[in-house]
Design goal:
Blueprint lengths: L1 E6 L5 H13 L3 E6 L9 H8 L15 H8 L2 E7 L1 H8 L6 H8 L4 E5 L3 H5 L1 H12 L3 E2 L3 E4 L5 E5 L3 H12 L13 E6 L4 E2 L5 E2 L6 H12 L3 E6 L11 E4 L3 H12 L4 E4 L6 E3 L20 E3 L3 H12 L7 E8 L7 H12 L3 E6 L10 E8 L6 E6 H18 L5
Parallel strand pairs: 1-2, 1-3, 3-4, 4-5, 8-11, 8-13, 11-12, 13-16, 16-17
Antiparallel strand pairs: 6-7, 9-10, 14-15, 17-18, 18-19
Amino acid sequence: MRIVLGVGGGIAAYKVASLLRLFTEAGHNVTVIPTEASTRFVGTATWEALSGNPVSNSVFDDVHQVNHVRLGHEADLVVVAPATADLLAKAATGQAGDLLTNTLLMAHGPVLFAPAMHTEMWQHAATRANVDTLRTRGAAVLEPATGRLTGADSGPGRLPEPEVIFEAAMALVEGQADYQLPLAGRTVTISAGGTREPLDPVRFLGNRSSGKQGVALAVAARNAGATVRLLAAHMEVPPPAGVEVVAVETALQLREAALAAAADSDVVIMSAAVADFRPAAVSDTKIKKRDDSADPIITLVRNPDILHELVELRNAVGPAGRYQLIVGFAAETGDSQGDVLAYAEAKLERKGCDLLVVNHVGSDKVFGQDTNSVVILSRSGSEPQEASGTKTEVSTAIISRISFELNHVSPRA
């Protein structure tokens, strides 16, 4: 794939060298176009050495090749990182003062901007208007990361990590992310993995959840432009780059984290496998197995219904508050009293969430596997939606459905 990598004039330009390496190691042919200001941070020799291609930022170099037209026409993808406030403004207003802005005007394929700037610049009405303009025209503009900026300040404005930009770029080209990033500007909280309820210092009650589906959901939401917070219980897979991670172990810890995270979330997805019960008492020492002792009796008590509590909290805010979409997961098995969907529909009604993602679980299904098959039920009255395939594909379908509900379904009181 032919990629044009535009480099803006911000201190985060040094991180783009790692992004370039990711592109080239994946086998792509990359032409780097730095702005004049960016060469104050990283010189053209670095870009030539890492890309293996000549580097220029002038429309007057190699005029016979008409680079200001050719590069945009031939590119399968254009990525701009860091996309400074100045570059976003020039792109939004169609300026063509150098080779990069000319290339942006000539680009026929997808264009991805990865912003980096100070928080006040990112939040300024002019920048937000420019971002909206670019998205309306079909460009993808990532949300910047939140964290330490130049100097002592912190806030939204950090360049997303190179791995995040790379994955978003690949998803954009492969059609797994909308050019207009439907969750841009949204905050999504996702719980993942399985909770563990301690019996004593070495034993616990747990479940078979690997966290793979929750992590795939976090990646899909991130690729759709959301700011993602992952409430991570026990997982067999690492969390993805570019998301905030809050580690939890027990159902009570997850409840505390979920209620806190919901305060500023547009979407809450409770995909973790939460223990329904916990031991009434936890031994401070290991429970010993002695020949002269009777079998221990373990009394269990119910854990709180976190999903239902989140719905009640959301509904209590009322119409004056920001609309929040809540998604539950139901890992069900059928029995003589009813099938999986019957139990799931009853659960949707009981919990009061907006969407319920249902899967049929068993010793060889869902937990720990790389594939999944789900049915998405909605309180809006829509027909059940089926999704199957890899957990990445299923997550893409779920996030697309969430985006649709947010943008096209009227909020419920």
